Each structure stands twice: as C-alpha cells, then as structure tokens.
Amino acid sequence: APIDAHIEIVNGRVKINPAVDGRELDVPATKGWLMENGATVVMNGRLPLITNPVPATITDVSATAAQAEALLTTSVAINAYDPINDFEVTWVVSPAIWGEWLTMAVDPANQSQFSWSLDREAGTLFFQERMAALGPGRFVETDEALTAVSEAIQSGDGDIRLRIFHTESNYTVQPGDTLASIGRQVGFPYPWLQQANPLVGEALAAGQNISVPSPDVLLPLPIVENKRIVVSISEQRVWVYENGALKWDWLASTGIASSPTNPGIFQIQAHYENAYAGIWDLHMPNFMSVYQPAPGVEFFNGFHGFPTRDGVNLLWTQNLGAPVTYGCILLSNENIALLYEWAEPGVVVEIRP
Predict the structure, then answer these.
(1) Residue 306 three-state SS
(2) The pTM is what?
(3) Residues near 223 by beta carbon (within 8 Å), at least 6 away in sequence
(4) How far apart are CA 32 and CA 317, in angstroms?
(5) Who contacts 159 (Cβ-Cβ below 8 Å, separation ≥6)?
(6) What is the pLDDT of residues 137-151, one digit of tens each?
(7) Strand partners, 304
C-alpha cells in the first residue's frame, strides 16, 4: 500500500516523512505474460509479477509541518492546587512530552489543512504518574486536565490551573470513639458521617471501619486561591490571609460545648446583611454562611457580628474571646464588616480544633 507523507514529533521537533508510492498487481498483464511464456515459467519455476505504481494521496506536508512547529513553541505549566491542605504543585509539560501525545491528520483534499488532538491514553498515563507522587487519596480530573492542556497549546498561553481533589477514606474506630468525636478528628459534623454510614448504630465497636466522605463535598464552589481564613477554636482567634501573607489577626468566639463549632475545611457560601436564626431567636449582622451542621438542612453555621434579639441590645459584647455562640464564629462588628466585604463566596475557611 502507498504511504502518505506525514509528520511526527521526535524529541519535541517536527520530522517530515516523505510519501512512498505503493504497487498493485496488474492481474490481466501478468496472466497474459504467463499464457505467452508458460513453458519458461515451468522450466525456471518463477513467474514475474507485473505491477503498476499506486501514488500516495498526501504528498506535501510542508505547510502542516510549519503549523506543527508553531504549536511546539508552547510549554505548558500546570499549577495544581489542593485547597484542603493549602498546597500547590507545578508540573511542566514540555513539547518533548506532549508532542508524543499528538495525533495529527491532514485533509487529502486540501493538504495545507491540518488537524490535531492529544492521545488521551498517553496523556492519562502522564497524569497518573504525577498523581501517584501526590500520595494516596489525591487526584486531578484527567479529562479536565487534558482539555486544559489542549486549550493552552491552541492559545499559546502555557499556564493553566487545576484543582486537586480527594477520595473518600476510611476511619478505624478506636476505644471510646463516638461519631461526634470522629467527626471532630476528620473534619465533618457528625450527621454527615451518619449519612455516609447508615448501617452504623450509636454504639461503635473498636476496630469498626467508618466511611469518611471526600472533604471536597464541603467545598462545592470554585476555589478562591489567593484568600484563606483560619479559625482556631482552642485559641479563639481568626487569621485572615491574602496571597499567603497575614492580613488580619482577630479575637473571636466559637460555639459552646453543647453546640460546638465543628473543625474542618469549609468555604464561604453566601452573604446576608442580617440573618435570622429562628431556633435561637437571633438577628446576626453581616452573616456569611460556611457549613451545614447536617446534610440537607436549610441553616448554616458561619461568621457574624454581635447579634440581637430585640434589634437594639447587642449580645455577647463582653464575651469575645470565649466560646459563647451556638456554633457560629463571632467577630466584633468592626471586624465582621471588613471580612464581609473582603471574603467572596468560594474563599476557603479552615477551622482548627
């Protein structure tokens, strides 16, 4: 068969492979020669085959080679961010690497037209190797990553960002554990663990395995990477970071023992200038929702300023710095006003024990 002219990528450079004509058997001509020279064929034991050339369809790939060379100027830097651990890693995919993933095609009718795609299997192998280095339970969405690499090559903009996700995990029950204490350790309000383990009763047995959902379920919004809020329950403080630098350091109050603030990695969900908690009859200024104490409920714990019950008298103004709320994080009215304007939905909130 003929071989069309084609290009391949070798060590990040374009190599042109010229066309090679094929040959096809001319059956009538060969049969005619045999009929005329049968005795000679029998005597020599050889029949020469008469063939005709078959030209290649694609003979000139110089234009497509130039297009491929233009693509191969782009190295792609993949910045993968883990919002749970506040960790970032960069993977550089050079043309020498992604060029080996390149599948190219030339339009026979218009040999200057060139199309390309990335081989998903080869690209997936690359990302699997990188994910293995992240450690167990962490991954990037491979299809999303390959699409982003393709778009970066096409646009010539070699910087892309990906999110590192986490798988669900297991927890082995220790003597004395309860779902509430496990929830505090793994960063989930215990009703979330109840939902993930519907067959687990109130009495836990040491050695029992508990399924822990992926922490990503508590971060449903796109991540705001350059901002982070850290809350310390033990120190009753809030630290606010922007671009990795400390912006504010404030005294705070978290939940009382009977209605505690849950440790974990959460996210600013929404803003309410004046939220009302009917269960506690509290009006809470500059409320920012952070997490649902139980899956499916319509109320959230979050940040707010000094609340009122009558719209006039502020509560807990003398209690800042000690646990006093019903699970929310209390800040002074001055500080919550600053945070309310600064922290858009998607900002990660890390609540430490």
Answers:
(1) coil
(2) 0.83
(3) 81, 83, 163, 267, 346, 348
(4) 110
(5) 76, 77, 79, 152
(6) 999 999 999 999 999
(7) 330
